[in-house]
């Protein structure tokens, strides 16, 4: 990844820039192409939120050409989280893929957007934002833990780990995620499109869904949602 790379001082969202590059008939972006920006004016996060691109953060998107079968796509955010954790060397993963400090502040986030065609994705754009030298209010930055790390070095490390992790088998991804997570065994509130669910985060199912044990003793698989760690 990253052998084709474009950089902009200011971008709306690197997600959109990567897509536009892929659609450029004169010079279409190849698989693994990376778009990096210094600033984003319309950075986006998961579940319709914005992403505040703090000064000194690393924001980029990787283009993945399909066809990508949907089961592979479901594990991709988990694999990307593992790659990010390895590259940063600190923190743990909150399901599905937020990198948190030991005291629960967010260091980095991942957004996977897929352009679907029937039962598969024609392509996907994997966006990563890491607070490297500064962080928005309430979040953390990597410099607190790894002083002197340059964004260029971090980008190179993340891209190398991503290539490895996205090529791993589903079982290997799930096992690696279990080893790097701070979610399983915890009490959680999960916000999904269908409401809020509270219980204990038990495990992942083979498709990467989070299994939550409710106080009524039911185990509910959560395919997509936002987890709040309680206590
Ligand atoms: C999240 O935690 O909600 C995901 C945040 C993802 C942010 C990155 S920054 C680079 C890429 N471009 C965007 O607009 N979003 C992602």
Automatic annotation (TrEMBL):
Domain (BPL/LPL catalytic) spans 12-131
EC number(s) per UniProt? 6.3.4.15
One function term, GO molecular function aspect: ATP binding
TM segments? none
Provide this UniProt record's keywords sorted from A to Z: ATP-binding, Biotin, Ligase, Nucleotide-binding
Q: Where is the Biotin protein ligase C-terminal domain?
A: 183-229
The entry's cellular-component GO terms read: cytoplasm
Protein name from the UniProt record: biotin--[biotin carboxyl-carrier protein] ligase
From which organism does this entry originate? Answer: Deinococcus budaensis
Tell which residues of the whole protein are contained here.
69 to 299 of 312
